[in-house]
Design brief:
The chain is an alpha+beta fold. Among the domains are: 52 residues; 143 residues, Immunoglobulin-like (Sandwich), CATH 2.60.40; 120 residues, Jelly Rolls. Helix content is 32%, strand content 17%. It is globular, with a radius of gyration of 31 Å.
Amino acid sequence: MIQIRHFLYRTFVINRLSNEKTIHAMKHLSHYIALLIGIILLFSNCSFLKKESAPIDENGYVILSDEQVENIVNRSYQYVALYNVNNKFAIKQGGWNTLQADTQLKDHTMSEIARPNNDSFYTSAMLDLRAEPIILDLPAFGSKYVSLMVTSYDHYVDVPKGTRKGDFQKPEKILFYSDRTKGYKGEPVIGVDMLYKTEGDFVSAVFRIMPHANEPEKLKSIVEKIGTVEMETLSEYSGRAPKSTREISFPEVGKTDLDIFENNLLEVMQFVFNHVSLDPNDEMDQKLLEAYAPLGLGPAKKYDPEKVKIDGERFRSVAERIQKENLGKLSDPGLVNTMAPKMFKTKGLTDLETILTVSVIGPIGLPMEEAMYPNVTTVDGKPMNALNDYVIKMSKDELPPAQAFWSLTLYDKANGFFIPNDRKKYSVGENAGYKLNDEGGIEIYVAAEKPDGVPEENWLPLNRKDEEIDIILRIYVPDLEKVKSWTAPKAEKL
């Protein structure tokens, strides 16, 4: 009996030990299998990455076809232009979350943007919405034209407030925030009239205010109202100290957009990707991401200039050609009229050709419901040059169909800047000054010297040199029905 028990006990122990060894062996085997799978995946991933990474030429530049470079430039121009414009304004104002208000019309020292206006006051709020929302106080200005335009680095333009819509008749507050504003998702705030979600973290909110410059008392009142525009954080509005904003390094701006294409396009675009909202359902947004995929750029990534380089001179050359092609569209009124309904619109309401064209010609304009920008071409169809003098004639019935006001402004074509002159006369219109003739029409002279008998108000001075010039009409709150049968005036060489 004892022998039987001893036999059964030995059998149990041996089986148990055998099972434990088997289990132990199986554990080791599973570890080896996991390790083997990991090694296989590592090599397969390396092989995949090697296939996906773009090839490099002997200069260390990513190899891109001509079609790829052109596609990247076309799809980047709106972002490059607005990064350059918005950051220049922020630098000039002393940084982000600053407010600057004009109390006189812009002059030829204005070089932050191509083809600025000389017929209204700007009040610019440059907003950094990363740390918390910003609230703007909107006064009742007492002007017959005011608009508040909002845009971020993507150059999609919105006008949430305007006298055309009946706004600015009473004081209001508007709160701005973005997808990445910390701790805020659009909750109502007592005392705030409007919540506005922007497309980006760094935003320009720009008032255009008709100053009624030739009505001294009204001008004085409007200037006083402009002084009441205020900006504060949500914390400050709630009686608390403002939240600290994380320090951030901005890529350098360029003297021109072409400088960015040559010197730091990838750095700028990676910064843009990290601070604008890209819609997975928007075709233009997705095409942009596809264009930059071979370069490894996209949202929530970092750009390493040691690993990815492009031929800046090549990109600048392509951008310069595209710039010239789009500036040439100014001389085609039919094309400009076709594009007008899609100019300066929100995302989804424009197309690549239109937003590229306006980014080249003059960024941050207004949609056609607020303003139209027909170009004045010549009677003979030739480009205007400062070697010549010109006259632009309009009868009473040919005046621009503006329901607010109109102006005509002179620029150099290459840069889109005002022509410097001692009189600081850059435009003709209700605010910069004009004088109608006895029949209610007008003759505007673009000349190096004022012709005899021409009113001072109707003379735009030239600097006599071999330089192409542009003349842009601005029609504020155009009568869209009358516009259909109206034709922009032409300049006649004298």
